[in-house]
C-alpha cells in the first residue's frame, strides 16, 4: 500500500518518470489485472475497507473489551499512523473513561433516589404527626366525655342528698315512708321455644341489708387522674392499677377485713412512672395491664405505644417498642413466655419476653385493634373497629380462622375456659359465640338494646375448678343491664337490671357463684347467680371502669373516674 500511495502521489504531481521507476521496481507491470477494467476510485474504496477492517480488529480483538458495550470509532489519522496494539490501548483507555462517566451518572442517580427517599420519610413523619394529632383529638374527646360523666355524678349526688333531706323532713312531719321497691319478675321473649323463660330482675331497695358499709371498704388514694384499669395478682395480695396520670401502681392489700387493714395504716404502694418528671403527660396514659400467671411480673400498655414489664418490687425490667399507636389491650399467655399486645396502629405483636424483642407482628386488620385474648400458648384472637375477628398462630403468616358477621366495632373477645368457644360483643348491639369448627357464628345473641361493651365467661364447666357447674356467659351493655346466657343452647337465662347508667365491667367470683358489675352510675353490684338477686351493693363517688376479684374470692377491687381504687370486703 505504501508503494501504491507513492505512485499515485508522483503521477498526480507530474513526476511521471519517477512514478514509472517506482512502479517498475514494485513489479506493478507484472500484475495480471487489466487496468482498463478497474473502476475509477477503486483504490480509495480498497483503502477505506482496509481502514474499516483495522478499526474492527482493534475493537473486537481487544481482550479487555466487552462485546456488549458500544462500538468505539477511531479517527482515520489514528488508523493510518498507529498499529493494532496501540489502537487497542487507546480503546481500552477510552472505555475506562466511559465507565467513569457511567459511574458518575449512577452516583448522581443514587443521590436523586436518596433525596426522594428523604422526601418520603419526611412525608411519613408528617403523616405520623397528623395521626398523632388525630389520636390526641380522640383522647381529648374521651377525656371530655369522662369529665361530663363526673359532672353528672356530682349533679346526681346533689339530687340524692336533696331527696334524702326531703325524706328526713317528711319523716319528721309524720309522713308515711316510701314502701320498699318490689322485685319484679318479667317474662321475656327470646325467640327460642322450650325451657323456662328468662327473668328480668329489678333493683332491690337500698334500705335492705345488702348495702356495704363504708367500714368494709378501703379507699386507695394517690392517682392524680381517672383510674381505668385494675387487676389482682393471681398468687398474692398485690393489686395493680393504671391511670391517666401516666403511672401504674402496685398496692399491697393486707389480709383480713378492710376495717383491720385500715387500723394497721394505709396500704403500701409502689409508683410505676411511665414518664420522667411531671406525671400529667397524656401521651403516657396507662390504658391496660395484666399479671403473668406466676404473679411475678406486671405488664402495662400505654398511650405512647410502648409495653413495659415490671417486677413486683417496682423495677422496670423491659420496655417493648414497635407499635406506632396507643396500646388498647395486652395479655400474657399461660406459659408466660409470650406477651401479646393490640394497638391503634391496626397490628398485634407477640413479644418474646426473655429475649426482650418482638417475635412476630400481625398486620391483618384495617382498623385499630380493641381487644386480644390467648386461646392457648401459641394461638390467639383479635378484634377491631373494622368489625372483623381473626384467630392467629405464632409462626403462621396468615390467620388460621377469620370470623366475619358483626356490623359494628367489635369491643371485646374472650375464649371460654376450655378454649373451644370464642365470645364477642359489638356496637351492633349483638354478642356472638364462634367455634373453630365452622365459619359462621354458632349463636347470635340479640337481647340488649344498646352497644355491648364487654363480656366474661364463668370459671365453671369442663377444664375449670368448678367442673360440675353450668358454663355461663355474661354481657354488659350501655343499656344499663347485664345479661346471662346459656351457651349450650344459645338462650338468655336472665337480665340483671340493677344499674341506671352504662355497665363497663363484669367479673365472676372464683367459685362461679357470684357476679360483680360496675357502672358509670358509681355503683358496684354483686349478684347471686342462683336467683339473680343483688346480695351486696356499694355506691362510690365516681363512675366505675373496672371490677375484679382476688384469688380467694373475699375481696373485690374497683377503679373509678374520681382517681381512686376501692377494695370491698365480700363475706357471705
TrEMBL record:
Which key words tag this protein in UniProt? Nucleus, Repeat, Transcription, Transcription regulation, WD repeat
Q: Where is the composition biased (Basic and acidic residues)?
A: 94-172, 179-189
- What GO cellular component entries does it have? histone deacetylase complex
Start and stop residues of the WD repeats: 220-261, 279-311, 320-361, 403-444, 445-495, 496-537
State whether keyword Transcription applies. Answer: yes
Gene3D superfamilies for this protein: 1.20.960.30, YVTN repeat-like/Quinoprotein amine dehydrogenase
Top-level taxon of the source organism: Eukaryota
UniProt keyword annotation of Cell cycle present: no
- Compartments, record wording: Nucleus
> Per UniProt, what is one GO molecular function of this protein?
transcription corepressor activity
Region ranges (Disordered):
94-207
PANTHER family per record = F-BOX-LIKE_WD REPEAT-CONTAINING PROTEIN EBI (PTHR22846:SF2), WD40 REPEAT PROTEIN (PTHR22846)
* The name this protein goes by in its record: F-box-like/WD repeat-containing protein TBL1XR1
- Originating species: Linum tenue
Organism lineage: Eukaryota, Viridiplantae, Streptophyta, Embryophyta, Tracheophyta
Amino acid at each position: 500500500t505504501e508503494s501504491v500511495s507513492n505512485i499515485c502521489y508522483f503521477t498526480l504531481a507530474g513526476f511521471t518518470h519517477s512514478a514509472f521507476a517506482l512502479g517498475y521496481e514494485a513489479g506493478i507491470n507484472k500484475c495480471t489485472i487489466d487496468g482498463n477494467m478497474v473502476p475509477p476510485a477503486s483504490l480509495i474504496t480498497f483503502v477505506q475497507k482496509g481502514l474499516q477492517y483495522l478499526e474492527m480488529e482493534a475493537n473486537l480483538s481487544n481482550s479487555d473489551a466487552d462485546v456488549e458495550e458500544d462500538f468505539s470509532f477511531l479517527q482515520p489519522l489514528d488508523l493510518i499512523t498507529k498499529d493494532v496494539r496501540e489502537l487497542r490501548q487507546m480503546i481500552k483507555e477510552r472505555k475506562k473513561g466511559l465507565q467513569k462517566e457511567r459511574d458518575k451518572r449512577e452516583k448522581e442517580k443514587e443521590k436523586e433516589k436518596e433525596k426522594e427517599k428523604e422526601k418520603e420519610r419526611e412525608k411519613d413523619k408528617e403523616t405520623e404527626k397528623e395521626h398523632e394529632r388525630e389520636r390526641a383529638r380522640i383522647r381529648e374527646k374521651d377525656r371530655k366525655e369522662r369529665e361530663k360523666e363526673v359532672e353528672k355524678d356530682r349533679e346526681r349526688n346533689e339530687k340524692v342528698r336533696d331527696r334524702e333531706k326531703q325524706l328526713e323532713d317528711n319523716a319528721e312531719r309524720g309522713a308515711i315512708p316510701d314502701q320498699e321497691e318490689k322485685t319484679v319478675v318479667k317474662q321475656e321473649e327470646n325467640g327460642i321455644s322450650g325451657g323456662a323463660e328468662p327473668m328480668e330482675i329489678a333493683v332491690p331497695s337500698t334500705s335492705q341489708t345488702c348495702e356495704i358499709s363504708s367500714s368494709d371498704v378501703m379507699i386507695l388514694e394517690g392517682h392524680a387522674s381517672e383510674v381505668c384499669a385494675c387487676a389482682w395478682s393471681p398468687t398474692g395480695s398485690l393489686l395493680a392499677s393504671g391511670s391517666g396520670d401516666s403511672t401504674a401502681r402496685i398496692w399491697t392489700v393486707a389480709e383480713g377485713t378492710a376495717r383491720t387493714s385500715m387500723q394497721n395504716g394505709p396500704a403500701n404502694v409502689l409508683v410505676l412512672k411511665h414518664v420522667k418528671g411531671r406525671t400529667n403527660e397524656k401521651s403516657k396514659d396507662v390504658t391496660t395491664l395484666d399479671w403473668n400467671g406466676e404473679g411475678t411480673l406486671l405488664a402495662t400498655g400505654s398511650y405512647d405505644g410502648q409495653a413495659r414489664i415490671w417486677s413486683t418490687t417496682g423495677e422496670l425490667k423491659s420496655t417493648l417498642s414497635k407499635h406506632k399507636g396507643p396500646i388498647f389491650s395486652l395479655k400474657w399467655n399461660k406459659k408466660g413466655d409470650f406477651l401479646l399486645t393490640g394497638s391503634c396502629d391496626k397490628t398485634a405483636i407477640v413479644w418474646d419476653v426473655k429475649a426482650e424483642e418482638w417475635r412476630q407482628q400481625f398486620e391483618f386488620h384495617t382498623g385499630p385493634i380493641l381487644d386480644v385474648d390467648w386461646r392457648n400458648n401459641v394461638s390467639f384472637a383479635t378484634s377491631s373497629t373494622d368489625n372483623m375477628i381473626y384467630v392467629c398462630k405464632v409462626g403462621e403468616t396468615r390467620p388460621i380462622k377469620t370470623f366475619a358477621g358483626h356490623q359494628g366495632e367489635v369491643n371485646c373477645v374472650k375464649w371460654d375456659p376450655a378454649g373451644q368457644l370464642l365470645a364477642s360483643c359489638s356496637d351492633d348491639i349483638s354478642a356472638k359465640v364462634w367455634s373453630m369448627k365452622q365459619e359462621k357464628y354458632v349463636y347470635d345473641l340479640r337481647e340488649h338494646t344498646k352497644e355491648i361493651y364487654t363480656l366474661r365467661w364463668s370459671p365453671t364447666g369442663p377444664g375449670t375448678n368448678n367442673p360440675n357447674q353450668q358454663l355461663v356467659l355474661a354481657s354488659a351493655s350501655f343499656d344499663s343491664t347485664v345479661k346471662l346466657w346459656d351457651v349450650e343452647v344459645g338462650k338468655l337465662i336472665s337480665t340483671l337490671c340493677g344499674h341506671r347508667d352504662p355497665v363497663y365491667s363484669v367479673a365472676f367470683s372464683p367459685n362461679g357463684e357470684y357476679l360483680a358489675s360496675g357502672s358509670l352510675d358509681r355503683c358496684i353490684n354483686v349478684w347471686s347467680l342462683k336467683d339473680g338477686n343483688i346480695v351486696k351493693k356499694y355506691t362510690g363517688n365516681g363512675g366505675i371502669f373496672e371490677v375484679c376479684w382476688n384469688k380467694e374470692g373475699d375481696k373485690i377491687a374497683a377503679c373509678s373516674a374520681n382517681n381512686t381504687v376501692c377494695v370491698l370486703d365480700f363475706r357471705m
